[in-house]
Write a structure and sequence with these properties.
two-stranded antiparallel sheet; alpha+beta
């Protein structure tokens, strides 16, 4: 049995016997080469990135990458939509960090 998925991109429709599940983050990427499977959610980095990121306005792009005969989700692109900055590390936006430091009093 699969663990429950706590991710804003996961969609499950179980109404009246339907069993439709999808990752809307993967579905939005037209360049994705491999189909999504529910088992990828168990090791997906996206929920942890969304929690750990210092920006709330985060836009992500991801794909399914095949590694050692197994598929896994890989984040390929991240943008802070508040500052329109492409992020090399989706967990940290330097401009949001500077704003948070200025609001907290500066030199902590």
């Amino acid at each position: 049995m699969n663990k429950p998925v706590n991710c804003r991109y996961f969609y499950g429709d179980y109404f009246r016997g339907k069993n439709k599940e999808e990752c809307r983050l993967i579905a939005a990427n037209q360049e994705n080469q491999h189909p999504w499977k529910r088992s990828y959610c168990d090791s997906c980095p996206v929920p942890e990135i969304l929690i750990a990121s210092n920006t709330r306005e985060l836009a992500l792009e991801a794909k399914v990458a095949k590694r050692f005969l197994r598929g896994q989700i890989e984040v390929t692109f991240a943008v802070c939509t508040r500052h329109m900055v492409e992020l090399s590390d989706p967990r940290h936006c330097p401009q949001c960090a500077a704003e948070q430091q200025a609001l907290s009093g500066g030199d902590d």
